Amino acid sequence: SDGWSEGFEQREISTDLGDIYVSFWNSDNWFIKTAEEMGIEENQKMGGMKFE
């Protein structure tokens, strides 16, 4: 792991309008896209750390 931000960006953030994903990579070219625009289906899960 590269630290806190890597674990953070590999987890969805639930909102009233749906899930969002955050990435800190290459902040000069940041963007916001929906799961549909990213080609993520509702039954797909992002990999990463698991917190229990």
Topology, element by element:
Layout: H1 4-9, E1 13-15, E2 18-20, H2 35-38
Care to give the gist of this entry?
By secondary structure, the protein is α+β, with helices and mostly antiparallel strands.
Structure description:
The protein is α+β, with helices and mostly antiparallel strands. The protein has a domain of 29 residues. Helix content is 19%, strand content 12%. It is built from 2 helices and 2 strands, in the order H-E-E-H. Strands 1-2 form a two-stranded antiparallel ribbon. Strand 1 and strand 2 form a beta hairpin. The model has no long low-confidence stretch (mean pLDDT 72).
Largest sheet: 2 strands, antiparallel
Q: List unreliable stretches of 5+ residues.
A: none
The number of E-state strands comes to 2
Gyration radius over CA? 12 Å
Any idea what the shape is?
globular
Structural class: alpha+beta
Gap from first CA to last CA: 18 Å
Spatial arrangement of strands, main beta sheet: 1-2
Strand/helix succession? HEEH
User: DSSP strand (E) fraction?
Assistant: 5-15%
What's the tally of helices?
A: 2
Question: Mean pLDDT, rounded to whole units?
Answer: 72
Report the helical percentage: 10-25%
